[in-house]
Every structure is written in C-alpha cells, then in structure tokens.
Amino acid sequence: MIVEELLMRLNSYDDYEDHVDDHAYMMDTLRILASRHAAGDSELIAGGAAEALAFIGNHIATRDRRFADYVRNGR
C-alpha cells in the first residue's frame, strides 16, 4: 500500500485521501482481528474475516480500478 500511496501522490490523484482512508480502515480491521485471535476470541473471527475480505474485494474493484484507469488514461 505504501508504494500505491506514493504513486497516487506523484500523480496528484484526486481521490487520494479517501483511498488512503480505506487502507487505514483495512489495516485497523486486520489488527483488531489479529488481536482477537491472539486473545483466543476466535468465535467472531470468521465473520470479521469475511467482512474484511468483502471490503478489500470492493476496494480493489472500485478504488484500485479507478486509480489504475486514472494512471492509464493520463488523468
């Protein structure tokens, strides 16, 4: 994600802030899931993992696709 965020900055990407907010949300969610797992609270892990995976899939299909198109089309 760091490289992707750098590319967005270098290209003056107009959706940079919202895109990076998604990255922060994903990382926070994964940290929470890892913490719950480490604490032995695996009961809710499957549901949380499914939600995280759905969020990531949507992020790739929408925000990452938009950025790729932005770079490909020269803005």
Keywords:
0% strand, 75 residues, mainly alpha, 3 helices, single chain
Question: What can you see in these coordinates?
Answer:
- The protein has 75 residues and is mostly helical.
- The chain has helices at residues 2-10, 16-38, 45-72.
- Helix 2 runs antiparallel to helix 3 (45-72).
- The longest helix is centred in the C-terminal third of the chain and has 28 residues, at 45-72.
- The protein is elongated.
Uncertain segments of ≥5 residues (pLDDT<50)? none
How many structurally independent domains?
1
Count of alpha/pi helices = 3
The count of strands amounts to 0
The overall pLDDT, averaged over residues, is 92
Largest sheet: none
Return the structural class: mainly alpha
Topology record:
Layout: H1 2-10, H2 16-38, H3 45-72
Give a short summary of the structure.
With 75 residues, this protein is mostly helical. It is built from three helices and no strands.
